[in-house]
């Protein structure tokens, strides 16, 4: 029987967790079991949820509030349609509201996965588009763009591009607006990208933010692509994973999609409630087809515990799924001094992503990008940042002086 | 300057909450302020967020972990498009991930509201359709329907309908499936409803569950309506509020929509993180156009604190919004003994909603419905349930014996 699985952590000082697990497995599938006549049970067996695992954590002297169980339930695929809303409602619809319970992991059956093409480009596809295969990528974020006009936007774009970044993304709070409507800013920015490429020799992806009514997103994406967009940004959690899935699996939308984690903090930080970061920003983003996934790093200003970051990375890169990988983009408060540590933690398949760490460089935005390029070069050559800065890289030196050196 | 507002509760043992509020107001709008040249400030002023209120809760002897502030920020409407994803990303996108912060309230400007027609029917429209104006409505929920075929579904529908309920809703975990595809079950159930109406003299709304791919929901709704559906059920949180908004404001979808709270528990129960129940299930559901809103009651099996329930009710019914009201449907574990208390708490404009409390009646599903009808009659006549049961209402008597009497 093909099933998807869900693993929960339940906190309760006294509950019989085995009984609780059984009641979830029955209650969220066939509804009742012991009352069913034998003949009915036979026909219902294929719909019945199964308790796969109950691990109870109650060490001697466990404190009130700290007794929990990790419970894994299998939900037969025959019970729900092959889409993310159906899976989420099945495994965490009603029970999300029933006491201290957090959804910590999902398991997708091959049958369920068959409905999901996953990322259209993935890490390899993005690297192919950029022609960069052996180093981390560098992304820069537009900053303070609300209220800017097209000339100001172009100017900021050019300064970022000349710093040598590989990707530039819209600010996620830039919505479609009369000053810089998406097609216009794509035209302006892609022209600026071409001009910059002549100086830097580097290709550049610009991820334009898809916003507005759900039913108009596809057309908006196509108009942006017609205008030259070679990537898109999307606030997935404010629209729903199925919307990303439909966009990413649409053959006409033939550019990489970067998923922004806006609103994710409404789900993952509590130990007792919600959905873990690795499900939200790892498993579901990849399943829904995000080519790049942004999330708070363990290092910077808005942080997430390192083990959660590593769990996200593992889900985005795992070879156990028959889907292309998604590029991890640990974000927020990143400065050049952190680059070697990011590479140690994530490996080469990572995007170094910075906003303030580029625009806030004392020598300007272009120098801010260069400092990161130099930091990546140093890390790739296994040279300390301090040594590399001293060897004729003043932008990196200034960045280290400003935000601190290698950690 | 027209603005929407957001009120947060921030927990921190030491933070300068006024400074923190200022940094949210600036950071989530113009990005930076003190560094801007004077001329730029003038043009940016209309985009700048404003701190409206900072209330710091730190009574003498406040314990670690219990110092908090309630902070209200105004976000200029000019910064975001008039849709729910844009508002949520603006007010709770990045900052949802930045420490202990919960979104507790929203304030909608008239300008923002102008894009939202709200519920198409609302409480009055639903009552008009049913011809019932002076009492709480009664809803029954299909139970254990996974794996049933059309005959079994019709049989369960009929037993519910003959009990005298006003509304019957699909189980939210019933997705489109080969055994009971939505159009077929609508046809079968609406025929059963007509037959039952001849016996009960009561009109009946049947809310069929919209499921499957986002882009196909509208067509699915229209097919269901063509097949006779006179209401729809929708798992809003698994799809996104904008999808509900688009469905509810579509003139062709001319039946009431009931919003199910599946997944809501991933957001609201933590005091430190997430989005309050009154925002999720009150403000945003009504804004997005839900005619009825289900949520866990304070009384039954899956519970929510009573003050949160009352806050949801207040948002659904508030006369300060230029939108039709939404009908509150406190749910889960409701039995007839609770009816007088529900009416005391909610007033007459409420749906008494039961699943197990109807199907689990020892005399059967039909008797289960009748017991609720009798409980509502008693409460309306200000007769105690015990007295009314004794006066020739054996179904009510049995229900009180089974689940307990009036609370």
Automatic annotation (TrEMBL), chains A, B:
EC number from the UniProt entry: 5.3.2.5
Gene3D superfamilies attached to this UniProt entry: Ribulose bisphosphate carboxylase, large subunit, C-terminal domain, RuBisCO large subunit, N-terminal domain
Keyword tRNA processing applies: no
This protein's UniProt keywords: Amino-acid biosynthesis, Isomerase, Magnesium, Metal-binding, Methionine biosynthesis
Keyword Membrane: no
Superkingdom field: Bacteria
BP-aspect Gene Ontology terms: carbon fixation; L-methionine salvage from methylthioadenosine
Family named by the database record: Belongs to the RuBisCO large chain family.
Name under which the protein is recorded: 2,3-diketo-5-methylthiopentyl-1-phosphate enolase
């Amino acid at each position: 029987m093909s099933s998807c699985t869900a693993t929960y952590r339940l906190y309760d000082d006294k509950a019989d967790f085995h009984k609780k697990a059984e009641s979830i497995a029955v209650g969220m599938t066939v509804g009742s079991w012991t009352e069913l006549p034998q003949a009915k049970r036979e026909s219902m067996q294929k719909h019945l949820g199964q308790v796969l695992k109950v691990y109870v954590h109650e060490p001697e002297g466990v404190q009130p509030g700290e007794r929990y169980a990790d419970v894994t339930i299998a939900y037969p695929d025959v019970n729900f349609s092959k889409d993310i809303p159906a899976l989420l409602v099945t495994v965490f619809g009603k029970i999300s509201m029933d006491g201290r319970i957090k959804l910590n992991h999902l398991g997708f059956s091959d049958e369920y996965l068959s409905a999901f093409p996953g990322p259209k480009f993935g890490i390899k596809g993005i690297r192919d588009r950029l022609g960069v295969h052996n180093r981390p990528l560098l992304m820069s974020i537009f900053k303070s763009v609300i209220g800017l006009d097209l000339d100001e936007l172009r100017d900021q774009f050019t300064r970022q591009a000349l710093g040598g970044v590989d990707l530039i993304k819209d600010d996620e709070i830039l919505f479609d607006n009369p000053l810089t409507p998406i097609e216009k800013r794509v035209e302006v920015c892609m022209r600026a990208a071409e001009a910059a490429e002549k100086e830097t020799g580097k290709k550049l992806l610009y991820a334009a933010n898809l916003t507005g009514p759900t039913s108009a997103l596809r057309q908006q994406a196509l108009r942006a692509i017609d205008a030259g967009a070679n990537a898109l940004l999307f606030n997935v959690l404010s629209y729903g994973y199925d919307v990303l899935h439909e966009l990413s699996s649409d053959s006409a939308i033939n550019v990489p999609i970067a998923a922004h984690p806006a609103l994710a903090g409404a789900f993952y930080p509590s130990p007792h409630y919600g959905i873990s970061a690795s499900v939200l920003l790892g498993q579901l983003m990849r399943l829904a087809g995000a080519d790049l996934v942004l999330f708070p790093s363990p290092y910077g200003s808005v942080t997430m515990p390192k083990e959660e970051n590593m769990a996200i990375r593992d889900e985005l890169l795992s070879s156990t799924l028959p889907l292309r990988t998604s590029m991890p983009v640990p974000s927020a408060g990143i400065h050049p001094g952190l680059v070697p540590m990011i590479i140690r933690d994530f490996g080469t398949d990572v995007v170094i992503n910075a906003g303030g760490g580029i625009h806030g460089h004392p020598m300007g935005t272009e120098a801010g990008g260069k400092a990161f390029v130099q930091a990546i070069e140093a890390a790739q050559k296994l040279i300390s940042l301090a040594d590399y800065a001293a060897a004729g890289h003043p932008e990196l030196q200034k960045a280290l002086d400003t935000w601190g050196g290698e950690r």
